[in-house]
Amino acid sequence: MRSQEPDQVTSESVPGAIGVVARAVRHSFNGLNVIAHADVQVKPGGFLAIVGDSGGGKTTLLRLIGGLIEPTSGQILLSANDQSKQSNSYSQSGHVAPVATLNMGTISPGSDISFCFQEGRLLPWRNVLDNVALPLEMHGVRPQERRAAASAMLAKMQLSDSEHKMPAQLSGGMRMRVAMARALVTRPKLLLLDEPFGALDEVTRLALDEELRQLWQRTGTTTILVTHSIQEAVSLAKEVLVMRGKPGRTLPTIAIDLPTGAVQRNSMQFVSLCQDVYQQMTAQTTQAPEQMP
Ligand SMILES: Nc1ncnc2c1ncn2[C@@H]1O[C@H](COP(=O)(O)OP(=O)(O)OP(=O)(O)O)[C@@H](O)[C@H]1O
Ligand SMILES: [Mg+2]
User: Fold this and answer.
1) Do 227 and 195 touch, CB atoms closer than 8 A?
2) Which of 42, 127, 212, 241 keeps 20 to 30 A from 169, CA to CA?
3) Of the bound ligands, which one is closest to the alpha carbon of residue 243?
4) Quick one: how far is CA 118 from the chain centroid?
5) Which atom of ligand 1 is nearest to the CA of 32?
6) CB 204 within 8 A of CB 220
7) CATH 3.40.50.720, domain 10-119+197-291, yes or no
8) What is the spatial distance between Cα 282 and Cα 276, in angstroms, rounded to a whole number?
């Protein structure tokens, strides 16, 4: 049960959630343009879903927002709603302070930003508890403290019984819950999710969607979710951003104004919002996206 909006979050809430503004972002890999133009805005504590054409640059956009790569042009600003942090959040170029790339899960040195990828990317030689504790270990948290924090997060994900299992002993859904616990153990201020549940069966996916939605409403962590599912986007996010074409371009954001509470996927309002997103994803453009100004 949950009924709270992010601005009314409980003691689990994350202070200083990060707001994101990306303006006129363009990105090329080795001269090949993969994002032609991206504008993104997420207020602190907001939840944005990004959907769109495969290969259109969604993962690249997420990596740019997370600071893993620098845009070819344009500006990405991350700001904390906690005033004391604000001045630390910007580098001279207007980009957020550098973020280290770790080869699993990924956390900023300040542990402000967490990633969660489709495959989960658990370390196969570590048990569940030590996988979840890993980001804290990278930040120099003492063994007892980090195990306690990991254990508490696993309890929230209903995985207490699996703390000592190895990743290979888990189902796909359990692996994703462990990956999510690992992404959340540092209490990030910005959570970047790249198709986290894409490989799961529908029933498991719906259950994890619901867990994610409740978690967001309890903590108010700013969340950006890339997904191929329009229904998942509309049921979880407060705003949906469509990326079209190759190289990708963002279209105007669609606000998702559904009543608080469990989403009724057969309601007129839900179906109509899904149609709005679908229309943006499929509408014919008068010119090829590459030729648009
Ligand atoms: N590190 C990289 N080096 C070179 N090209 C890359 C790199 N990462 C992505 N690309 C290319 O950039 C384009 C966009 O890729 P990206 O993964 O961002 O798309 P996507 O929208 O996430 O696709 P999907 O929906 O299939 O996950 C693709 O053509 C891809 O091959
Ligand atoms: Mg992708």
Assistant:
1) yes
2) 212
3) 1
4) 11
5) 5
6) no
7) no
8) 10
How sure is the predictor about 28, in pLDDT bands with cuts at 50, 70 and 90?
very high
Q: 116 or 289: which carries more pLDDT confidence?
A: 116
DSSP for 188-250, please give it: -SEEEEESTTTTS-HHHHHHHHHHHHHHHHHH--EEEEE-S-HHHHHHH-SEEEEEETTTEEE
Of 196, 194, 178, which Cα lies nearest the Cα of 131? 178
Phi, psi for 46 (deg, rounded to 5): -80, 170
Calpha distance 71→25 (Å, rounded): 6
What's the CA gap between 168 and 175, in Å, rounded?
A: 9
Indicate the residue type of 244.
R
Q: Is 143 in the pocket of ligand 1 (CB under 6 A)?
A: no
At residue 285 the predicted structure's pLDDT band, cuts being 50, 70 and 90, is: low
Residue given tokens 């867990």 in the structure block? 211
- Whole-angstrom Cα distance, residue 164 to residue 166? 7
For helices 202-219 and 172-184, what crossing angle results, to 10°? 20
Q: Is 253 in the pocket of ligand 1 (CB under 6 A)?
A: no
34 lines ligand 1 (CB under 6 A): yes
pLDDT at 248 over 80: yes
For residue range 155-180, list pLDDT tens digits in order.
988 899 999 999 999 988 889 889 98
Which amino acid type is present at position 264? Q
Answer yes or no: are the C-beta atoms of 192 and 62 closer than 8 Å. yes
